[in-house]
Amino acid sequence: MRYQTIEATVDLTLQEYLRCSFAVFFKSRRQIFLFFSIPVFLSVLLCHVVYTTVQSGSPLFVNKNLPILIYFLFLLIYPLIFVTTYFGAKKQMATNSYFKFPQKFVFSDAGIGVSNPSSSSHTDWSNIREVRETKTLFLLLSGTHHGFFIPKRCFQNQAAIPEFRALLAAELGAKAKLKA
Fold first, then answer.
1. % of the chain exceeding 90 in pLDDT
2. Rounded to whole angstroms, what are the CA distances from 66 to 40, 62, 169?
3. pTM for the complete prediction?
4. Residues 8, 154 contacting (CB under 8 angstroms)
5. Which of 26, 39, 46, 72 is the most exposed place for a label (fewest CB within 10 A)?
6. Per-residue buried b or exposed e for 68-86, using 16+ beta carbons within 10 Å of the residue's own CB
7. Using one digit for the tens of pLDDT, what is the confidence trace for 22-74?
8. How far apart are CA 139 and CA 1, in angstroms?
9. Given its phi and psi angles, is residue 150 left (phi above 0), alpha (psi -120 to 50 degrees) or beta?
10. Spatial separation of the C-alpha atoms in residues 108 and 168, rounded to whole Å
């Protein structure tokens, strides 16, 4: 079945780019679970080590606050991940020429065409490894950490979104994880 050409003009905002970055970082519920379960595991482990050390009378820790200090220093890694992602995205948007102009996307049976005033490119559907749909955007991932981010607000009209879903499902099959 041939689908009509679907167009979207994308001019990402910082908030949208951050959403894309975190959606790529936390690809699955399993990754989210592992990311947030590590502090819980370390808490239990730390409590066990401190308890057994105190019970045995062993001078393992010269300062009894050392394990707690190490634990809290470890916990600082989590906010740092979010802070560095924010500032990295902000820097990318300010310095990367890809974000300087709106990107015009043309989706068809032949693939994905992308153009702006300074360049144009074409990507076949076979180069797309995974598609994910969130409440506000589509992520077309061509690699582990890169791809195309298409906010739903950027389509010519809201009627184009179901057509785009149908095109993605037809071209990518199981690779497309769509909402509807």
1. 29
2. 18, 8, 54
3. 0.71
4. yes
5. 72
6. eeebeeeeeeeeeeeeeee
7. 777 766 566 667 777 777 777 777 777 777 776 776 665 556 666 677 777 77
8. 24
9. beta
10. 10
